[in-house]
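Students often ask why inverse folding is considered easier than folding. One informal answer: many sequences map to the same fold, so there is more than one right answer. In these notes we will look at a single instance of the problem. The structure comes first.
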């Protein structure tokens, strides 16, 4: 298959690595000249993975003006950029038979739309969401990884599994398109809270409480939004996004969201934001607040990331009160 991967960052490169290892022909679309030049010249991504050789069937481009030879498009960019990008695909005349796989984790500001809802609003194409506890750098090291693929187009799950399945990269079908996207977006907010707790040394007990309340807030958000989704049957016990990705992102400093929170907890401010890179949780918490969604842990993180530096006691008070509020309202 000829596959366009939109985004030459960490996850776009890892997705391309998997697909190219399965002998698909990959074109990465990146706006970063150094990324494009290094992929085309030396089969490496010098910005994101300078030490790892990429398969030679990955090429890159700075611009895409036609999708004539493309069969599948993977969208692997920050969630704030998804709408513009999908509109661009529409503008350049994406054929209806081109399949779309969404890999970005976030919720749109103001509209509160999930990434699949943005795609469905703009294009008539079949689409799926790929998500799970998947650090790009571990995928690049061929460490065992399991991901979920969800779609309302039943054949899409099998299609994506076939494209990507490798010994160390498993793709499981899932029928909870909404839940996996909500969980994948909100876990980034909870990871910021867990990073704050770690950085301010507020204790593992508090972290576990915040993580558990955060998990409940994923379900509460789904209820608040009035989403109705059938129960997942065959994979019900494998909650890779609600549990797996939440745990992964909240508990290891490999997560950018967790590191961001850690800096706030440790220093009161984020000292090296540009070194951390993309922190989807900050955008997501702003999106939720822009739509007046109010859930205790989410509110506490919003107030921490949007206010002046707080000292450890201030951070503790906010998180402590959010737990109390959560228990009062939902326990
Ligand atoms: N990293 C990971 O382990 C995982 C990430 N994800 C999700 O994938 C998405 C992308 O993350 P990731 O690859 O890590 O992020 P990175 O920051 O590593 O890469 C983002 C890519 O998108 C490009 N980009 C940035 N802004 C825009 C824009 N406005 N329009 C078009 N392209 C843009 C960047 O270009 P440039 O290089 O020029 O900045 C870069 O190529 C996120 O939603 C993330 O949550 C999901 C699973 C795992
Ligand atoms: O989503 C991820 C892992 O599943 C990546 O997490 P971060 O964006 O916090 O690094």
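Output (designed amino acids):
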């Amino acid at each position: 298959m000829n596959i366009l991967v939109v985004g030459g960052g960490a996850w776009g490169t890892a997705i391309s690595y998997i697909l190219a290892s399965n002998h698909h022909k990959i074109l990465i679309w990146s706006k970063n000249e150094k990324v494009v030049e290094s992929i085309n010249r030396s089969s490496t991504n010098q910005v994101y993975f300078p030490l790892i050789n990429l398969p030679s069937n990955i090429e890159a481009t700075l611009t895409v003006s036609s999708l004539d030879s493309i069969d599948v498009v993977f969208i692997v960019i920050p969630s704030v950029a998804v709408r513009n990008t999908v509109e661009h695909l529409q503008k350049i005349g994406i054929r209806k038979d081109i399949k779309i796989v969404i890999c970005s984790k976030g919720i749109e500001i103001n509209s509160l739309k999930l990434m699949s809802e943005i795609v469905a609003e703009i294009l008539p194409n079949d689409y799926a969401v790929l998500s799970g506890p998947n650090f790009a750098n571990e995928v690049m090291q061929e460490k065992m990884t399991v991901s979920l693929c969800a779609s309302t187009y039943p054949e899409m799950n099998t299609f994506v599994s076939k494209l990507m399945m490798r010994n160390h990269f498993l793709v499981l079908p899932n029928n909870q398109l909404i839940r996996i996207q909500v969980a994948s977006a909100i876990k980034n907010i909870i990871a910021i809270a867990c990073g704050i707790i770690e950085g301010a040394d507020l204790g593992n007990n508090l972290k576990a409480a915040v993580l558990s309340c955060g998990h409940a807030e994923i379900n509460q958000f789904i209820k608040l939004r009035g989403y109705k989704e059938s129960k997942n049957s065959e994979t019900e016990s494998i909650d890779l996004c609600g549990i797996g990705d939440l745990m992964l992102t909240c508990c290891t400093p490999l997560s950018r969201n967790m590191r961001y929170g850690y800096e706030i907890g440790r220093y009161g401010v984020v000292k090296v934001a540009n070194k951390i890179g993309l922190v989807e949780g900050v955008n997501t918490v702003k999106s939720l607040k822009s739509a007046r969604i109010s859930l205790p842990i989410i509110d506490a993180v919003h107030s921490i990331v949007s206010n002046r530096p707080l000292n450890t006691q201030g951070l503790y008070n906010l998180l402590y009160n959010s737990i109390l509020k959560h228990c009062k309202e939902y326990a």
